[in-house]
Amino acid sequence: MRKIVIATDGSPTGRAAVEAGVELAADEGAGIVVVHVVSILDFAEHGNGGAPARPQRLPRAEDDPALQDALALAAAHGVEATSELLVGYPPKQIIRLASELGADLIVVGSRGLGRLKGVFLGSTSREVLAHAGRPVLVVQPVRAPVPAGD
After folding, report:
1. Most exposed of 6, 29, 32, 79 (fewest Cβ within 10 Å)?
2. Does the model's pTM come out above 0.90?
3. Beta-carbon count within 10 A of 45 CB
4. Mind listing the pLDDT tens digit of every residue in the chain (150 residues)?
5. Three-state SS for 43?
6. CA atoms of 93 and 30, how far apart (whole Å)
C-alpha cells in the first residue's frame, strides 16, 4: 500500500477515520492525503430582508482545523501527509480525488445511523463504499460503554 485517502470533517467520526488511517499508514509505510469536502451551499449568498449578503470567501486548507489536526497527527506518527480542501458533493469529490491519485484505499467515518436513518439522511460512507471502485475502510468512533444500572 502506497497512498491512502482519508476523509474528515472535524467531527468525532472524522477524527476516528483520521486516527485509523494514520495508524494504518504508519504500519504500511504509506503516505496519506487527508481531504475535507465542504458543500457549495455553505457559500451561497443569503439575503437578509431583501439585501444581498456579503459574498463569502472560499476556505483554504491552511485555515481548516480538521485538516491541520490530521496533518499534526500524521507528523506525530512519522507519516508523510498532504491535505486537500474541496468544495462540492462529498462522496463524489472523495471518490474523484482517490481516483486521480491512484489511491490504494479510502478511509471514511460512519456515524452508525443504521439502515433506516441512512436511507433518509444519506450517508457519505455508504455512497463512497458503493461507488469508489477501490477498497474502502469505514470507521466508527469508539463509544464509551454504558454503565450498568444500579
Report:
1. 29
2. no
3. 9
4. 999 999 999 999 999 999 999 999 999 999 999 999 988 776 665 555 555 555 556 678 888 999 999 999 999 999 999 999 999 999 999 999 999 999 999 999 987 555 554 443 348 899 999 999 999 999 987 766 666 665
5. helix
6. 22
